[in-house]
Amino acid sequence: MDLLKLREQIDAIDEQIVDLYEKRMDISRQVAEFKIETGKKVFDRVREDEKLRKVKSLTHNDFNSRGIEELFEQIMSMSRKLQYRLLAEHGSMGNLPFIGVGELSEKARVVFQGAEGAYSQAAMVQYFGDKVSSFHVDTFRDAMIAIDEGSADFAVLPIENSTAGIVSEIYDLLAEFENYIVGEQIIKIEHCLMAVPGTKMEDIKTVYSHPQSLMQSARFLNGYSWQQISMQNNAFAARKVAEDKDKTQAAIASEYAAGLYGLSVLQKGVNQSSTNSTRFIIVTNQKIFLKDAGKVSICFEVPHESGSLYHMLSHFIYNNLNMNRIESRPIEGRNWEYRFFIDFDGNLSDSAVKNALRGLREEARNMRILGNY
């Protein structure tokens, strides 16, 4: 058997495949023009399923059958993307229900979760300025309800910490409420151990803080046998210790919270990472985005079948969009099914972004734009 001759035969076949592929794509272009004229949808799942069954039946073994299925799934996916692009060129992208604005209102009322002295308050002040009109609520859900009902224009919510990871509840609330991200603010986190004045380290028996703050300070806390109790917010923990005036209690919170509640800082920087930061999102119930926004967040569900997520992600590849985050959360009431959250670079006015979103909207389940910021 001559390997060189075999390779020559493969090269000849590959040339035929390329020629046939280009012919097929040219016909796909004609199909797109017909769909533009008649208003038909690009994605026809019934037609594609029939095509896959037919081409698989032409093969002679199970291995080739699976290979042909994967090959034609890709070919049909590329045909759809060509058709989406042609729709865009003909101005048939459809309108995205978001309005671009130059800036957020200076007279806005802002809500944050926690008590005075919370990191959320610090993020709010950094984003909106120290003269912003604001109030605070006990839970993340309360903050979402406040903007949903209109008692606040914007909410400031933590979504990710560089040490402890995502705040999963925020992702679930973004899927539940019709609210939208319009900005983000990253602040450095430095946790401090604090207690009522006169407290010594050996007096402490119980430490209060938010679960993520306890996690971020685990290396420090592991050196002591203190009971760790979770609170809804660091500032709540500081306030409780101040109100109880009990030297056996301590809190982990910001230095600002210690000053606000009259507590003594026993040790600074108890979080193990010196680069610990938290990313906060600015959320509103208005479908707006800043005109110079550079990041888009979306969520969607996919059919519970092989390759479905890959096909969704291919819309970013074919439109040259840089995807910088993907998270998944279980869908309530549907065991082992997940909702995916994706952040990618772009602006809702960009044609590539519109093209990708058009394809995702047609092919994914319950696709939602969560914001552009």
Write up this protein:
With 373 residues, this protein is α/β, with parallel strands linked by helices. The chain has four domains: 1-92, Chorismate mutase (Chorismate Mutase Domain, subunit A, Up-down Bundle); 99-189 and 277-290, Periplasmic binding protein-like II (D-Maltodextrin-Binding Protein, domain 2), CATH 3.40.190.10; 192-268, 3-Layer(aba) Sandwich (D-Maltodextrin-Binding Protein, domain 2), CATH 3.40.190; 293-373, Alpha-Beta Plaits, CATH 3.30.70. The chain is 42% helix and 26% strand. It has helices at residues 3-38, 45-57, 62-89, 119-128, 140-149, 168-176, 211-216, 218-221, 234-244, 255-260, 308-318, 351-363, and strands spanning 99-101, 109-113, 133-137, 154-161, 165-166, 180-188, 192-195, 206-209, 227-230, 249-253, 264-268, 277-284, 288-290, 295-301, 323-330, 338-345, 365-372. The strands form four sheets. Strands 2, 3, 4, 5, 6 and 12 form a six-stranded mixed beta sheet that branches. It has a five-stranded mixed beta sheet with strand order 9-8-10-7-11. A four-stranded antiparallel beta sheet has the order 15-16-14-17, sandwiched between helices. Helix 1 (3-38) packs across helix 3 (62-89), helix 2 (45-57) packs antiparallel against helix 3 (62-89) and helix 11 (308-318) runs antiparallel to helix 12 (351-363). It is elongated and about 85 Å long. The termini are far apart. The model has no long low-confidence stretch (mean pLDDT 93).
